[in-house]
Amino acid sequence: MLSKADDYPVHQTPDPIAHSGVDRNFYDRYFFNGYSPDGRVFFGAALGVYPQLGVMDAAFAIRIEGRQYNLHASRHLNWDRTDTQVGPIRIEVIEPLQSLRITVADNEHGISAELTFDGRHAPIEEPRHTRWAGTRLYMDVTRLTQLGSYTGWVRAGGQEVRFGEGECLGTRDRSWGIRAIGMRDPQPAAPPIPAQFHWYWVPAQFADRVMHFYINEDELGDVWNLGMIVVKDGEAPERLREARIEPVLAPGTRWPTGGVITARDKAGGEYRVELSSQRRFYLYGLGYTHPEWGHGVNKGPLAVGYDECGVDEVTVYAPPHIHAQAFATVRMTTPEAKVLQGIGAFESFGMGPHARLGFSELFAAP
Hints:
Number of helices: 0
CATH class: Mainly Beta
Structural class: mainly beta
Radius of gyration: 20 Å
Distance between the termini: 53 Å
Strand content: over 45%
CATH architecture: Beta Barrel
Order of helices and strands: EEEEEEEEEEEEEEEEEEEEEEE
């Protein structure tokens, strides 16, 4: 089956672009977040394509003060991956690797937006990360990450917020490959693999540079995916080594309220990054662990849904709120003893055991 994408010289196999190998869990995804410098407003957007499942879905969510508004949409893919609109939500590439636009058209749920993202630096390509669950390939992903700023406006909850130059910072990523999507497999691996995932993600911006930190650890606390990159304005990315994080968790939960990241440059000098998390933004609003709007679920030819929550009313660490980002203030001390103040996002997602932090149950904290 041919699609519009076949007219571009981007093929990687003898097949039409509509085909994507043989793994039913193949996906291709856009993700965005943005926040005002005072943390009052925090939003996210996402669009995912699942060629083997024949589904495309999208979401836009925004927290204004203590209330989060979530718009979900899903449709059948109909073979064409170049049509990146799902119901009222559209993602448009204005300039590849530099500028993209998020549009949410007026709809019955009262949430709409027109936001343009502009990158501050060239996208950072993360090393490909692969994870096996026994003999089954669980993750095989390539991701690019780019920090930048937004201009435009958002309406939700009867309020309108406008962003001029420098009034909204954030991050976008593009990832593609293999990870669990759609309905749960009716026949899990034998013997069953215990559910476990532990993840922190911290992009942040300062006056003269940006940083990007991410880490996955297994049930013993051993690292299987890690990176910390600093990009000074106008310079090439610097990949640091020996990066580690010591989180501070809200009592009785796995949500971080802060933490300290340390890493070293090539000369052995230490970076120290102190994080203080503010009000959370729950990623179920973008489909992550959502009981009805999970990624890749077939909702029919076209479906649109809406929900909202009081952010401060969520006090129990349990689905669907386990995966969260939080606006964060960031204090970086460089190897030259220069102290920089910045802002960013502190994302966390933890389930299952983690020996170093004392977790033994699926969701419970010690």
